[in-house]
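Module 6 notes. Inverse folding takes a fixed backbone as the condition and produces residue identities as the prediction. Think of it as a translation problem where the source language is geometry and the target language is the twenty amino acids. Below is one complete input and output pair. Work through it position by position during the lab.
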């Protein structure tokens, strides 16, 4: 017999079964929606192609066409370039998340979810987790291609673990920002446009060229924006160079950004979903 939920119980859990805490039910909802979005990745080869193709094209382009004209003091340009493009590639993947969240909100899927006793935040968590997974795939492929064309990082195991930790935090922050933009967008087409913000912001950083070559005002802005701080920290950890204060600054920036983006995204999602 199908259970019909009243308006008061829509989108909320029914009383927990014996031995099941409310937290375990929420975690179960998250697991189901994460699985849903991962299946979308495996069944959509175009999504996987997008996740890795453009970053690789940029890597080859800058390595072989522009690399000889760009001076990267203290290291080979390929060693300078790969950590920056790893961060840039995370922004590429964000557009898919913005569009996915907007699509869920506009095509009636969320209304169907609200008829079930489930945590609304699971919809967003599923999108964020899938985005982080796409970025991890892009990282593996890009580092592999980088090694094939001359990338020789000097950081040890601890340095790489630190770099991966910062990249995971950054990816979480970017995809929570992407879900927030998805909840703001009124249409799927508009979501695609909003997603371009996250695509292009990483370009205004030290990802591709040293900031010392930039004009004065622009250099000050670029050097102190949170994506540049993170790129500089990841680059130092991967290559075994002086980290300075960039590690703590990157950690502080992106813990704060991730937390705020998650809070506002969930709040806006509930406003759009009607509860």
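Target side of the pair, the amino acids:
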């Amino acid at each position: 017999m199908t259970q019909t939920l009243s308006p008061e119980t829509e989108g909320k859990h029914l009383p927990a079964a014996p031995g099941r805490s409310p937290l375990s039910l929420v975690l179960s909802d998250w697991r189901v929606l994460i699985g849903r979005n991962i299946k979308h990745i495996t069944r959509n080869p175009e999504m996987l192609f997008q996740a890795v193709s453009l970053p690789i094209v940029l890597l080859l382009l800058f390595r072989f066409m522009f690399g000889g004209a760009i001076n990267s003091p203290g290291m080979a340009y390929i060693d300078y370039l790969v950590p920056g493009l790893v961060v840039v590639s995370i922004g590429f993947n964000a557009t898919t998340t913005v569009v996915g969240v907007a699509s869920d909100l506009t095509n009636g899927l969320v209304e169907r979810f609200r008829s079930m006793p489930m945590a609304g935040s699971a919809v967003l968590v599923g999108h964020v987790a899938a985005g982080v997974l796409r970025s991890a795939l892009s990282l593996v492929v890009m580092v592999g291609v980088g090694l094939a064309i001359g990338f020789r990082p000097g950081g040890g195991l601890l340095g790489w673990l630190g770099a991966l930790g910062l990249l995971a935090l950054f990816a979480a922050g970017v995809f929570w920002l992407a879900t927030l933009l998805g909840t703001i967008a009124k249409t799927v087409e508009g979501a695609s446009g909003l997603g371009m913000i996250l695509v292009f912001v990483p370009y205004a950083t030290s990802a591709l060229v040293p900031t010392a070559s930039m004009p004065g005002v622009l250099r000050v802005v670029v050097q102190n924006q949170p994506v540049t701080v993170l790129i500089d920290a990841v680059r130092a950890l991967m290559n075994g160079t002086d980290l300075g204060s960039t590690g703590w600054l990157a950690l502080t920036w992106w813990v704060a950004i991730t937390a705020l983006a998650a809070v506002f995204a969930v709040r806006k999602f509930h406003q759009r979903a009607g509860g």
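Reference fact for the lab report: Residues 22-208+217-273 form one domain.
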